């Protein structure tokens, strides 16, 4: 009689069996295609407590077990001021999934809200990333891994066009400009959010969402306009007409035809199509 698997083993198994095609395979594809992991890397897998970062932790664990490339992992949780229930939920899920997290505390929620008032999200995100870089470097890491997925990439691309007036994507890896020798990698780059949700629900898992104090206080108020939510709705509608719409948007940022663009910016320098005519941009 086969030995009964523990819960965490069932969850791990689901990643490489039931959801192999939509989770494990695109994860490995991203790691290889974008050269996210190299020999001797020490990577801080940054866990917010949500579904994306928890799946990332499990995928990175599985890769670490089987990869021919030698690299080290630590699982880093930054507590930016969670309430007791959310902090406990993260700890319980980490224990359930057998992810050996290291937790460090900051006051980012309070600081970002004090500085940015009713719109703290952008500042909060930047501060969180800075603290993660700093702590990871202190622990001897040369990379941090974040849980941004393919849907984030697609939505960010559309948001930049529709609400920002620019063509802008989200890279799978970035060199830090403020922390020498550090990189940010996004190993979920080829995985859709809908497939992460299916994995979560299949395993009966319950993770925290955005857990900041600002969100808690405004949850019962009239919802503010969200560009990302609106873009999600548009994509869902477009998929009814064209099931490939997400992949088409994703592929478009890998297939940019610069010769057809009136202007673009590279490394801070603005370029114009008029340069090909030997004319200065006015």
Strand segment count: 8
Please outline the major beta sheet.
6 strands, mixed
Report the helical percentage.
40-55%
Radius of gyration: 20 Å
Low-confidence stretches: none
Q: Per the principal axes of the C-alpha atoms, what is the gross shape?
A: globular
Question: What's the helix-strand series?
Answer: HHEHEHEHHEHEEHHHHEE
Discrete helix count: 11
Give average pLDDT, whole number.
Answer: 90
Question: Per DSSP, what share of the residues sits in E-state strands of 2 or more residues?
Answer: 5-15%
Q: Report the end-to-end length measured between terminal Cα atoms.
A: 77 Å
Brief characterization of the structure:
Helices cover 48% and strands 13% of the residues.
3D architecture notes:
The chain has 282 residues and is α/β, with parallel strands linked by helices. It is 48% helix and 13% strand. The protein contains 11 helices and 8 strands. It has helices at 7-16, 20-33, 51-66, 84-96, 108-116, 121-138, 150-164, 193-202, 213-218, 227-241, 245-252; strands at residues 42-47, 72-79, 101-105, 143-145, 173-175, 183-185, 263-266, 269-272. The strands form 2 sheets. A 6-stranded mixed β-sheet has the order 3-2-1-4-6-5, sandwiched between helices. The protein has a two-stranded antiparallel sheet with strand order 7-8. Strand 5 (173-175) and strand 6 (183-185) form a beta hairpin. Helix 7 crosses helix 10 (227-241). It is globular, with a radius of gyration of 20 Å. The mean pLDDT is 90.
